[in-house]
Amino acid sequence: MREAWKFARFWVPFCRKYEVKIKYPDTYFTAAESANRKFVGNSEFEAEKKMQKYKEFEEALEKNSVNAKASVSRDHSPTIEVMTDDNKDLSLREMPLLVYVSREKRPGQPHHFKGGALNILLRVSAVITNAPYFLVLDYDMYCNDPASARQAMCFYLDDKISSQIAWVQCPQKFRDVKEHDIYSGKLNAIWRLGMGLDGKQKDIDVNLLKKTFGSSNEFIRSMNINHRPALPEDRRPSESLQNELQLLASCTYDKDTLWGVRRATSCGGFYHQPSFALQRIYFCLQ
Predict the structure, then answer these.
(1) Measured between alpha carbons, how far is 242 from 79 in angstroms, rounded to an integer?
(2) What's the rounded Cα separation, in Å, for the pair 184 and 189?
(3) How many whole angstroms separate alpha carbon 130 and alpha carbon 97?
């Protein structure tokens, strides 16, 4: 993740400066030029476009992956790291916030499903940025069209249906699919909708909230859509926030709560485990 941050410090400004449409670097460097035509042929653009930075990034990933499997543990505390620079670079403010989250894993505690990982990401995000929307991508997925998230937002901004929606799934098209693929992986276009909860601005019993969402006061405070967490400009979480993040990313945080129970028996008929698990956190979304 740190290597990705180092590369992003070059790549994000490059894409913005030259209005690059295809932002996935591997595709950008192998496909037809997608930067604004007015920059093509410009000496400065051609100099910055050289793949040296990307090659250095790939080499660093290859080097780090050699011992990656040996370092994998199934018994460890939560790890949350906000990516930042050692020097106080003012351009940091222009960079997207990148946070590495590894949830707690303990023997005997389930940790193999995407729904549980998203539950923890939701809680951690709530106390760092309180962003109202999520875009979820698997590690082996990428999005070439920057307008995809905006297209999905049409559902959330529709006053007639937005209060009933938690998740919108975009069509997935897979490459290198076998000729006799029975799952239609080349274009598996399925839109899934989960139930949502509105009306959080009403008077609510705090004890009931804790019974549903767990004991974290900071997380419950984030449910107010106007709440803005106080992350310092240098993006280094305070000690109290670090302690709160450790709690929210623990594997037992939602034990003995109603988290994931309230609608577990009526999730729209989706019985495939990852999709079913996603519905568990419907009532926390805007």
Answers:
(1) 10
(2) 9
(3) 12
Residue written as token pair 């035509």: 37
Q: Where are the beta strands (DSSP E) in 61-151?
A: 79-82, 99-102
Count of CA atoms in the C-beta half-sphere (13 A) of 264: 8
Query: Model pTM greater than 0.70?
Result: no
Angle between helices 239-248 and 114-128 (to 10 degrees): 160
The answer, yes or no, to whether residue 278 has pLDDT greater than 60, is no
Which of 79, 93, 4, 14 has its CA nearest to residue 50? 14
Would you state the structure tokens that stand for residue 3, as one six-digit string? 């290597």
Nearest partner of 82 among 95, 65, 66, judged by Cα: 95
Short-list 182, 220, 225, CA closest to 201:
225
Dump pLDDT digits (tens) for 26-85.
Answer: 888 888 888 888 998 888 988 888 878 888 998 988 888 776 666 678 888 999 999 988
CB 196 within 8 A of CB 156: no
